[in-house]
Amino acid sequence: MTAVSHTAQPGTSGPARAFGRTMFTKTLFDNRRIFTVWALATGLLAVMYAGFYPQITADTASSVPEAMRGFGFDDMTSAAGYLQGAVFGLLVPLLATFYGAATGARMISADEESGYLELLLAHPIARTRLLLHRFTALAAGALLIAAVVLGAMLAVRSSAKLDSISVAAFTAQAVNLALLALVFGALATAIGAATGKSRATVFGITAGAGVLAYAINGFAPQIGADWLRYLTPFHYYIGGEPLKNGFQLTDAAVLVAATAALIGLGTWRFSHRDLGR
């Protein structure tokens, strides 16, 4: 791993110097608070909704609107069915999507917009390595979110009467959550790297694409077009019902392949275009 040339500045703290040895560690250090806030917020939201499960009754389950069935609300009485809809099928995946969009937009677009990117590239680090280091830090943040959500679910597993779901199943769902965040993080990073658009524009495009894909995945069954779900990452995130069936290798492979393809295309374009244009 190529280190970025780093000259200690007067007043720079020891941790800052230590984490500034490579672009990966520097990005982690610079975004440590942002990653932590995303992880804690997502974990807190997951726990809040999971805690409502003991209060779910047959009447409550039957009152779910038909339009919500496509979002995972088709089995509200079982623990796995409830979590698949109310927790991992509703707001948590949207938070993961917005994390990817917001963080991916920071990786290249924010620096190019501010002019800091030219300063970074004045150091002995290639564009490809810069982008990959930045994206690896984004991936670390996604793993942190997944780890916090997993820890939160296991912490309330007994008190919220979720014991019927195995630790392995919870882990499989958390892994898929991280992979979902990576897909949209890769999309935002690739758009910024390939086009040089502003941070706000990249975030808007990526978040809009995420919300559209989420809606398609949820409403496709209502219009008799289930095949459309296979075009969205949300199908591969939760369509295999990991809370019931455990880790689905094919679904995870699709999410990984989509992430790799987006980063590959973004990296290729970033290495060939004139910056600032």
Structural overview:
The chain has helices at 14-19, 23-30, 32-50, 58-62, 79-87, 91-114, 116-121, 127-155, 167-195, 199-219, 233-238, 242-245, 249-272. It has 277 residues and is mainly alpha-helical. It has one domain. The longest helix has 29 residues, at 127-155. Residues 1-12 have low confidence and may be disordered. The chain crosses the membrane at residues 34-56, 76-99, 135-155, 167-188, 200-220, 252-271. This is ABC transporter permease. Keywords: Membrane, Transmembrane, Transmembrane helix. Pfam families: ABC2_membrane_2.
Return the domain count. 1
Structural class: mainly alpha
Q: Distance between the terminal alpha carbons, to the nearest Å?
A: 29 Å
Sheet-strand content, in percent, reads under 5%
**Helix share bin:** 55-70%
User: What do the pLDDT scores average to?
Assistant: 87
Point out poorly predicted stretches. 1-12
Number of strands: 0
The largest sheet, given as strand count, sense and whether it forms a barrel, is: none
Instruction: Give the radius of gyration.
Output: 20 Å
Order of helices and strands: HHHHHHHHHHHHH
What is the molecular shape?
Answer: globular
List the total number of helices: 13
